[in-house]
Amino acid sequence: MSGEPLVVLTSVNKHFGSLHVLRDIDLTIHKGEVVVILGPSGSGKSTLCRAINRLEPIGSGTITIDGVPLPEEGRALANLRADVGMVFQSFNLFAHKTVLENITLGPTKVRKVPAAQARTRAMELLERVGVANQADKYPAQLSGGQQQRVAIARALAMDPKVILFDEPTSALDPEMVNEVLDVMVTLARGGMTMVVVTHEMGFARKAADRVVFMADGQIVEENTPAEFFTNPTTTRAQDFLSKILSH
């Protein structure tokens, strides 16, 4: 890998009651790397993604971001979350704020960026994701694809070190999926560090530096997209791909 380690998970375990959802996860994500996490439903992909910014506390093990251990709570955690952008399945935009207000809120409140500067930057980002003409609308007036692109712009507005995407296209109508994936591919090629939980194999092939395949709470296999898709080494991955790619 070219970049130095940015997100490092060591021996991470997580239980929901008696269910062992993350089992001894060791994973290092390097600066500028795009890691796509694949696997069947219930394999722990989203839990892993959410653990990286402590939306999901872990039972044991360590997670560090840029060398700093994940804080438990309080201001240190808020500061860390500012460095770790998150784009969810449901867009989680503030319904009572305009698109522009949604994007400037974090930078002005958390990063203490002056309002005029935050607005200028927000408009640049909306332009970049292709929805600058929607700046004064409210989220409910936008299509799902537009809302998700606003959510990506909102994550970028904080100048994060890494952005986590938790199934960002799974709630979208099929015709809107590509407009969001196109924005993500552009980000990936621009050097953004990204961790992407997705079912979109095309995105994984096109944009990922590395594919991490999970099953039953474990990382079963990791490889380059070319190797993973053409030559999976584990039976779990072979089985998963035969089901997915035969459609």
UniProtKB/TrEMBL annotation:
Domain ABC transporter, first and last residues per copy: 7-241
**Keywords, sorted A to Z:** Amino-acid transport, ATP-binding, Cell membrane, Membrane, Nucleotide-binding, Transport
Q: What is its EC number?
A: 7.4.2.1
Q: How would you describe this protein's topology in the membrane?
A: Peripheral membrane protein
CC terms in the record's Gene Ontology section: plasma membrane
Protein localization: Cell membrane
* Broad enzyme group: translocase
Catalysed conversion reaction: a polar amino acid(out) + ATP + H2O = a polar amino acid(in) + ADP + phosphate + H(+)
**For this UniProt entry, what is the primary localization, expressed as one broad class?**
membrane
Pfam families reported in the protein's UniProt record? ABC_tran
In the UniProt record, does the keyword Transport occur? Answer: yes
**What Gene3D superfamilies does the annotation carry?**
P-loop containing nucleotide triphosphate hydrolases
Q: Which family would the database say this protein is a member of?
A: Belongs to the ABC transporter superfamily.
Q: Give the protein's recorded name.
A: ABC-type polar-amino-acid transporter
Lineage start: Bacteria, Bacillati, Actinomycetota, Actinomycetes, Propionibacteriales
